[in-house]
Design goal:
The structure is a homodimer of 115-residue chains. The first copy, chain A, is of the alpha+beta class and 115 residues long. Chain A has one domain: Bit1 (3-Layer(aba) Sandwich). Helices cover 45% and strands 25% of the residues of chain A. Chain A has a 5-stranded mixed beta sheet with strand order 3-4-1-2-5, with helices on both faces. In chain A, helix 1 crosses helix 2. The radius of gyration of chain A is 13 Å and the shape is globular. Chains A and B meet through helix 1 and strand 2 of A and helix 1 and strand 2 of B.
Chain lengths: 115, 115
């Protein structure tokens, strides 16, 4: 089991901003899991909640990955920034895919690089 | 309401590793909130789950902040790395303080810098 977090690198976000956005995606995925995918969430938590943080070059690539994950039936949570700091409100910053079996996620995200 | 995430900067973690550790702390704080501090968690989620990522120079300063937060009656979750990548298993990497009212958290973390 793993949770994939995909982050845009074209927004000039600092490492603290990136961490906050990724945390937002992970919390949102956890709450969605409690609501709609309880068995997968429980399995992921039992395994120590493994996370992998990957990067995309912009909004278009992020949307493309999110769309392909949805088509594969994976849980997807897309995060837009609240705009309090650094970037404008409503900017798409990252997404969470999973938690789900690695074998289901890898075909969707396997070609992306680590952040 | 806010959730504070405090990260060590002396471990040489890359931005992806930092993001994963901070996400781990945020997810753990969320689950603890559901279990033990439901009203504060719900208020924080309603406000858009604001997060602030701060830094400390090492394990000693992280433990000190965590101890002071506990003494102030705040929820604290300390994260040790699973040791799969970059750093050794069991290394203390970061902690979550809250979610709680800013007025309760600021006396504990107000002197720390943003990551």
């Amino acid at each position: 089991m793993k949770l994939i977090l995909v982050v845009r690198t074209d927004l000039g976000m600092g490492r603290g901003k990136i961490a906050a956005q990724v945390a937002h995606a992970a919390v949102t995925a956890t709450l969605a899991g409690l609501d709609r995918h309880r068995a997968d969430l429980a399995a992921w938590l039992r395994e120590g909640q493994p996370k992998v943080v990957l990067r995309v070059s912009g909004a278009e690539q992020l949307q493309d990955v999110a769309d392909r994950a949805r088509q594969a039936g994976l849980p997807v949570e897309v995060i837009c920034d609240a705009g309090r700091t650094q970037i404008s409100a409503g900017t798409l910053t990252c997404c969470a895919i999973g938690p789900a079996d690695a074998e289901r996620i890898d075909p969707v995200t396997g070609e992306l690089s680590l952040l």
